[in-house]
Each structure stands twice: as structure tokens, then as C-alpha cells.
Specification:
Length: 421
């Protein structure tokens, strides 16, 4: 999967534009806008790594800490050749909004290393990860900045970072420094499914608002990885029918419905959804433009743009992926009365269960999967309604409403704490 925003789009400029538009709606104080427009700290590090062939290669990594007025910075670390400082800064700002919308006591952060993990051995990846953990150890911590997985990182990398940090800082295990860990070192039950599960709850609430009968609803899903698969499964459980799905190899459609478990099995066995029985193959464009009730982009950035937004024939667009819709496309969808559940709300289940993982780690007291899922449901359902009410109050699209809600919460905390020294 690419982390590459469209070459011509600078993601930090997009994030600033969204911030400025939302600030206008609530007539935010100019000074406060300036504070929110600047990440609190951005660290660039050089990472020399001994490669398996004996050579030394120097990688570049970043950690951006956007705002911590509401609590420690929180956000993933991605490994990708296209990582840039601008992308990391934008993602850290979006994390501030996401945590505020989810109403969890965190601010925003994000990290990344410019590398191609697919071309590296496990030993090289371990050395790179531990060096990065060492270089950022003084600015992360259980009470200051708690990283997590992102594109092309997972439990394995999180365990290495936890181990390195723990060895450096007192030499005792500190699982609370990072989330998304394997269960054996303090990970939470339910974390794997959390993003898809949270998204399914937001879809359920949106359908109620639009008087959609889920038994008659159809779903189209772009991207069938972790988020796409669990989201499909859990929306299907509400009665809806999956009719089209894609992955990096291709897209397939069957108007009569695609059984989610069967297509997951097919992907596991063959490596792709392509050639799933009873389906015909379609293009990525056709997939996005298929008439359906719920469209779930769950793969890449910038998929719905001013070029194709007018052709989208869904009632709800529920964004599992980060940044799948451009600002110009947002306007078009809104004018066409399509309800977008924006990424910062729809995929907030992941960071919410990360927060639960951190709480469990701090108390060394572990919850059942049922407890995790119940608390997630309560939390994200409230977030959906908070955003929906803001959208009604200001008569703006759901993304602007989500940003307005977040900015209000973050600005309030920043103002009350004051500026010192
Ligand atoms: P993943 O790597 O598990 O899955 C990505 C899927 O997208 C794969 O099936 C891949 O084949 C497919 N894909 C890649 N290129 C494609 C293309 N051109 N057309 C169609 N499909 C394509 O990743 P994931 O964890 O499911 O994440 C997907 C998106 O959701 C990302 O934007 C990620 O940032 C976002 N997200 C994920 C989580 C999480 O907890 N997993 C949380 C928040 C946001």
C-alpha cells in the first residue's frame, strides 16, 4: 500500500486549509489559529544501520508532535519510501483532531522513516527500528508521547520499540510507552478489529439518521486489508449486502451479493479477491462509481477527487482510509447530499482501543474482549452524534463539523492551560 499523497498535493497544506476553513466557521481567535497551525515540535533524525551485506546505510526518520493540550501525543509510525516531513506533520495534526473527536485524553503525534521495508530483512528492520527508538527515546514516553503502528509497521516493530525504550529508561518493562503491541507483551484484545468495528458503529448511526433500512442496504469496499475486511464483516452483520470489493490486484462485482467470510477465505488462499466465484471483474473507477448505499474507501489517499466525486452514487461514504477524499470532492459530495463519515471519526476506533490498551498497561489490569468492544461502541457512538449535531448546528459537511468540534475542544484546553513560560 502506498502512503503517497498525490504528488501535487502537499498534505500539510491540505491540513492547514481544513483548519482555516473550520476556524472561520467558529470565528476562532487569530492567535489560537496560529498555535494550532504549528506542530509543537518536529524532530528529524539520521539513522545509520548496518545492513546484512556489511555496508552502512543512513535512513531519515521524523517524529512530529502537534499538540498536547488535552494529553500526551498519540499517533503511529509509518515505514514507506514516500514519507516526507510534510506528510508526518499533517498526519500529526489529524491525530490531534481524531483524539479530540473521540474525546480521549490525548493530543496528536506521528512518526515515519523513509525506507522500503519490503526490501529489507527482519534483522535490518530490527536494527533500524531500535535505532529510531533510541533516537526518539527522549521525546516519547508513557506520559508524553505514545506511538503506535501505521503503514507497514505492526506488533513486531512495536515490541522492539517497547523493549529498546524499556532498556534505556530504567531497564524494566514499560508496555505503556507504545500501543498496538502483540497480546503477549501487553496488547489489548479487540485491537485488531477495532478500526473496522468502530466504522461499522458509525455506519449504523448514520443509517438511522438517513432512515436507511440496513437489510436493504448494499456495500462497496475499496481495499480489503485489515480495516476493509472487518468493516465489511461487521456491516454485513447489520444486514447489508456486499456487492463489490477491490484490492491492489483488481476489483470484482456481483449484484446478487458477495459473502464476506467466503471472499476473506478466497483472499487468504489465493492472495487476492480477484477471480472470486460468481463475480465479474471491473475497474477501480467502476468500483468507486457503483450505485450502492455505503461506499467504504479502505485503501489509499486521494481516491475521491473533483474528477470522480460527481459520479459517486452512494448515500453514505464511510472513510476507513486516511485522507481518501480531497477538499474539492468533499464539496461535491455534500452538494449531492451524500453523507461522508470522515476518516477522523469513522476510523477512530483504532486509536480508541489503543487508549484502552494504554489504560490496561498503566494498571496492569486486563479487560475481556467484550469489555473492550462495549466501551468502544459507547465511545464512538457518542462521537458520531457529537459530530452530527455540530454538522446540524453549523449547517456544514461532516468533515468540517468534525474539525470544528475538535478545534473547539483543543482550543478550550489550550486557552485554559494558558501560555507558559
Ligand atoms: P492493509 O495493508 O491491511 O490493507 C490495505 C488494502 O488496500 C489491501 O487489501 C491492499 O491490497 C489494498 N490496496 C492497495 N492498493 C490498492 C488499490 N490501488 N486499489 C484497491 N485496493 C488497494 O491496511 P489497513 O490497516 O486496512 O489500512 C487501510 C487504510 O485504513 C489506510 O489508509 C490506513 O491508514 C487506514 N487506517 C487503518 C487503521 C487500522 O487500524 N488498520 C486505523 C486507522 C486508519
Amino acid at each position: 500500500m502506498s502512503s503517497n499523497f498525490n504528488e501535487k498535493i502537499n498534505p500539510f497544506e491540505v491540513a492547514l486549509k481544513q483548519l482555516e476553513e473550520a476556524a472561520k466557521i467558529i470565528s476562532l481567535d487569530k492567535g489560537m489559529l496560529d498555535i494550532l497551525a504549528h506542530p509543537k515540535r518536529v524532530l528529524t533524525v539520521s539513522l545509520p544501520v548496518k545492513m546484512d551485506d556489511g555496508s552502512i546505510k543512513v535512513f531519515t526518520g521524523f517524529r512530529s508532535q502537534h499538540n498536547d493540550a488535552r494529553g500526551p501525543h498519540k499517533g503511529g509510525i509509518r515505514y514507506h519510501p514516500d514519507v516526507t516531513i510534510e506528510e508526518v506533520k499533517a498526519l500529526s495534526m489529524w491525530m490531534t483532531w481524531k483524539c479530540a473527536i473521540a474525546d480521549i485524553p490525548y493530543g496528536g503525534g506521528k512518526g515515519g522513516i523513509i525506507c522500503n521495508p519490503k526490501s529489507m530483512s527482519d534483522n535490518e528492520l530490527e536494527r533500524l527500528t531500535r535505532r529510531f527508538a533510541y533516537m526518539i527515546a527522549d521525546i516519547i514516553g508513557p506520559r508524553t508521547d505514545i506511538p503506535a503502528p501505521d503503514v507497514y509497521t505492526g506488533g513486531k516493530e512495536m515490541a522492539w520499540i517497547m523493549d529498546t525504550y524499556s532498556a534505556l529508561k530504567g531497564n524494566y518493562g514499560q508496555p505503556e510507552v507504545i500501543t498496538g503491541k502483540p497480546i503477549s507483551v501487553g496488547g489489548s484484545l479487540g485491537r485488531n478489529e477495532a478500526t473496522g468495528r468502530g466504522l461499522a458503529f458509525t455506519v449504523r448511526e448514520a443509517a438511522k439518521k438517513l432512515n436507511i433500512n440496513m437489510k436493504e442496504a448494499t456495500i462497496v469496499v475499496q481495499g480489503f486489508g485489515n480495516a476493509g475486511q472487518f468493516a465489511s464483516k461487521l456491516v454485513e452483520e447489520q444486514g447489508a449486502k456486499l456487492i463489490a470489493v477491490s484490492d491492489s490486484q483488481g476489483s470484482v462485482l456481483n449484484d446478487n451479493g458477495i459473502n464476506v467470510d467466503s471472499v476473506i477465505k478466497h483472499k487468504k488462499e489465493t492472495g487476492s479477491i480477484v477471480d472470486f466465484e460468481g463475480c465479474r471483474s471491473i475497474s477501480n473507477e467502476e468500483l468507486l462509481e457503483t450505485e450502492c448505499t455505503i461506499l467504504i474507501p479502505a485503501a489509499l489517499e486521494n481516491q475521491i477527487t473533483e474528477r470522480n466525486a460527481g459520479k459517486i452514487r452512494a448515500k453514505i461514504v464511510a472513510e476507513a482510509a486516511n485522507g481518501p477524499t480531497t477538499p474539492e470532492a468533499d464539496e461535491i459530495l455534500y452538494n449531492n447530499k451524500i453523507l461522508t463519515i470522515p476518516d477522523v471519526l469513522a476510523n477512530g476506533g483504532g486509536v480508541t482501543v489503543s487508549y484502552f490498551e494504554w489504560l490496561q498497561n498503566l494498571r496492569r489490569d486486563y479487560w475481556t474482549e467484550e469489555e473492550v468492544n462495549n466501551r468502544l461502541e459507547k465511545n464512538i457512538t457518542k462521537s458520531f452524534h457529537d459530530v452530527y449535531e455540530t454538522h446540524d448546528k453549523y449547517n456544514v459537511d461532516m468533515r468540517k463539523a468534525a474539525t470544528v468540534l475538535a478545534i473547539n475542544r483543543v482550543a478550550e484546553a489550550t486557552k485554559i492551560r494558558g501560555i507558559w513560560p
